[in-house]
Amino acid sequence: MARKSFKEQMLQAREAAIVSSVNRLLAEKGFDAMTVDEVAADVGIAKASLYKHFSSKEALAAAAMIRLLDQALAFIATLEHHPTARAVDHLRAVARWSMQVQLAGEMPSLPSQNSALRAALTSNQVYLQRLMDVSEKLGAWIVSAQEAGHLNRKLPPEIVLYTLFARACDPVLGLLKLSGQHSDESIIELLLSTCFDGLSGGA
Amino acid sequence: MARKSFKEQMLQAREAAIVSSVNRLLAEKGFDAMTVDEVAADVGIAKASLYKHFSSKEALAAAAMIRLLDQALAFIATLEHHPTARAVDHLRAVARWSMQVQLAGEMPSLPSQNSALRAALTSNQVYLQRLMDVSEKLGAWIVSAQEAGHLNRKLPPEIVLYTLFARACDPVLGLLKLSGQHSDESIIELLLSTCFDGLSGGA
DNA sequence: GTCTATAGCCAGATAGAC
DNA sequence: GTCTATCTGGCTATAGAC
Fold first, then answer.
1. CA neighbor of A110 nearest in space, from A197, A182, A46, A23
2. Which of A79, A159, B52, B109 would you call most buried, defined as having the most Cβ atoms within 10 angstroms of its Cβ?
3. What pTM was estimated for this model as a whole?
């Protein structure tokens, strides 16, 4: 692609800074509690300037979600360079990665009930495309792992996919971290165990 | 206890009606999207009258949570009349019950980040007591099931408890219901399977 | 594109008569 | 305890000067 002009680079850098702030605030307080004033203050610009870049609060959240999905796709791409590994190991690695993001306080949390937000997301073509990209990558691995007998063949792939997405923002992680009884790494190992091996754990 | 006067019965009946409306609206829209005006309209009284019964929106949510925990304790009590069953079966039954509540659209959903709400709940002695009651009942079963080898002995009981609470409001259930591919009963069986047996499913 | 200032709205909570 | 009417504050979004 053509080389960006200086002005365009500046603009993209500023928008990246905005999305970064939004991402952190979404992870920290959630969409409803986050205010546009806070975002502007965190970035260090006036609120009206924010609206020159993003047309609404919902658009800010969508941008943060798109960035997250892009990061996930980048991580998935690194796994694809190891074709010898088992598909189930790839899935486990993705689950571990998402838990690490959450532990680092960088997992944006959106309320599933907010209708204005849902409307903005479901009408955002870029977001929908990224979501489909991730789903297809994971879906292929899920089917492979089931064929290899490493995942329960009786589970519809759909359920496995939804479960992996849900575990990425599982409140159990926050509760465990709050209790302070375990290290970050052991929290992740325990949750990976309950996710893939269940509470029974092969008993 | 002394027999309630007619007035007291009326008052309790009205408050029960309020809490019932709150519970349904919390399940339907979540705490943030629910407005006190809606609650008043649903009950059929004026908003100011609501505030004669409950001092704040947070108090309404707390009352709904207390009712839910009371229902859980009642269900747990019915299980205790079957002393021959295994502890792990009791836990599975409780998990199934909570999923049925959620499928019925009666599981109140509260944002874990709302600070005002958290403050109201953690300073509500009745709520905390009920939460401890449920936790102790389940905790005893968890330890028993681990000793019997029916639950993974390597998992701290705390994690099992948190996981059961989290599965009661697992968003996977809503996603599956939305897809319309499965019956309510098969959704519950699949989620119980992923919860206790994991995605690997003993593969 | 950035700013200050403000419009417009909505929701939680209250006043005060009955 | 119930009502109508209102207050109050905070938030999204915008106007308009520079």
1. A23
2. A159
3. 0.96
Q: Residue A144's domain spans which residues?
A: 57-196
Q: What's the CA gap between A124 and A187, in Å, rounded?
A: 35
Any B CB within 8 A of A190 CB: yes
Please report residues of A whose CB lies closer than 8 A to that of B197: 152, 198, 200
Q: Is B173 on the interface with A (CB under 8 A)?
A: no
For residue B55, give the DSSP letter: S
Burial of A7 (0-12, 13-18, 19+ CB in 10 A): exposed
Q: A190 lies in a domain?
A: yes
Q: What is the dihedral of CA B107, B113, B117, B119, to 10 degrees?
A: 130
Task: Evaluate whether residue A22 is within a structural domain.
Answer: no
CB count in 10 Å sphere of residue A9: 11
Rounded CA gap, A196 and A93, in Å?
12
Residue of A nearest to B170 (CA): A166
Question: Rounded to whole angstroms, what are the CA distances from B176 to A29, A162, B156?
Answer: 27, 8, 30
pLDDT, tens digit (0-9, with 9 covering 90-100), for A108-162: 999 988 889 999 999 999 999 999 999 999 999 999 999 999 999 999 999 999 9
Domain count, chain A: 1
Is residue B18 in some structural domain?
no
Which CATH number goes with the domain that contains A176?
1.10.357
Integer angstrom CA distances of residue B19 from A83, B76, B106, B119, B168: 56, 22, 12, 20, 20
Could you tell me if residue A40 is inside a domain?
no
Residues of chain B with pLDDT under 70: 1-3, 203
Q: How far apart are CA A119 and CA B21, in angstroms?
A: 26
Cα separation of A9 and A23, whole Å?
A: 21
**Count of Cβ atoms closer than 10 Å to residue B180 Cβ:** 7
pLDDT, tens digit, for every residue of B158-171?
999 999 999 999 99
Q: Is A151 on the interface with B (CB under 8 A)?
A: yes
pLDDT of A83: 80
